[in-house]
Every structure is written in C-alpha cells, then in structure tokens.
Amino acid sequence: MIDLYFWPTPNGHKITLMLEETGLPYTIHPVNISKGEQFAPDFLTISPNNRMPAIVDHDPGDGEPLGIFESGAILLYLAKKAKRFAGDTLRERVAVKEWLFWQVGGLGPMVGQMGHFVRFAPEQVPYAIKRYTDETQRLLGVLDRRLAGNAFTGGEAYSVADMASYPWVRALKAAGAMAGHAHVARWADAIAARPATATAYAKGEAVNPPPATAPSP
User: Fold this and answer.
1) Using only C-alpha atoms, what is the Rg of the chain?
2) Secondary structure (H, E, C), 114-182
3) pLDDT at position 22, please?
4) Whether the model pTM is above 0.90
5) Which has the closest alpha carbon to 69: 86, 92, 45, 93?
C-alpha cells in the first residue's frame, strides 16, 4: 500500500494520474495547502521541502517503508515499481526523462509564476506578468513542435513525461491560453479521454470539492 500526501494541484494530480494508470493500491492523505498543513512537523519528516505531493511506500521491497518527495522523483520511482510508463528502449527512456525534467524545470515553474502574478500577487506587476506569460507561451510552442511528430512527449507511448505536463496544460486550457497550439490541444484531449485520467481528477475533486455555483436569480 502507498500513502499519498496530496492536494488537488497540478503537481498533486501528476501522482494520482500515475497511480490510477498502474493500479497500484494507494490511500490519499489530504494536505490542505490553503491551511498550511504542508508545514506540519509530521509531514516535514516525509517532505523536507514542505511541499506536496509525497508518498510513503510500505512495501518497497527492501524492508522499511520508504518516503519520497518531489513529483518527478515519485513518478520515476512508481514507473520502476510498476515496470511501466518510462519507455521500453534506451532511446525511449532517454526521451521520457528529457521531457519529464523539461516539465519539472520549465513548464511547471513558469506556469506557476504566471498564475501567481496574474491572480494572486497583491499588486499588478506588468513586467512579471509579461515575463512569465511570454515564457509560458514559448514553452507551449516547444511542446507543440514536439507533438507535431509524436503522439506523446516521449514518443509514441504514453509515459510519466505526459503525466507530468498534462495537469499544467489542462489548467492553461481551462484558462483559454491554448490558442495556436493545435498539437498540444490534440494531445491533451487524448489524455483527458483516458479512464484513469477521469478517475484521478474525480478523486481530486472529492478531496477538495469546487465551490457550489450560486443559483441564478
């Protein structure tokens, strides 16, 4: 059994996508980041950077339970455990890792910064908004070119690289920021149609239900 410390953000959804695809048994332990629960001392022993997601695998194969933090490390660990979604050949494995680290080091942080300055900063900072919006669009262009000749980011097979990028692209698509990236849109639709994707997001919504829509007057 795997304990998943989770909140339904793009980084959290990466791990539920993978767990649902592999069928590995897991239990969700909500970490409400809006209430600062990621700073609890008990959580710090699992995730020293005070960030979710994190997991504890109670059957790692070498005795004691194993805690893992950082979404990219978790995805690679689960791929090795399940023997799936990390590429079958040397070249596929290299491509999967390239695009996984591309997301971890680029797409996620840039989209996150854009969202912060657009939605949450206490004052509008035009330079920051332009900087991170432009970089997000540049990265979407990089991804679009990759997907012009490949079904998925790692090649022809769905992988952890796709699971890492999809939640961020899904958020951009919901915000209407996908114009001009037809290949990315096609790829996102294909992932959205997977049964495991629907289940993963339903579980996330169960953890933190969206606010009820106010009735029409």
Assistant:
1) 18
2) HHHHHHHCCCCCHHHHHHHHHHHHHHHHHHHHHHHCCCECCECCCCHHHHHHHHHHHHHHHCCCCCCCH
3) 97
4) yes
5) 45
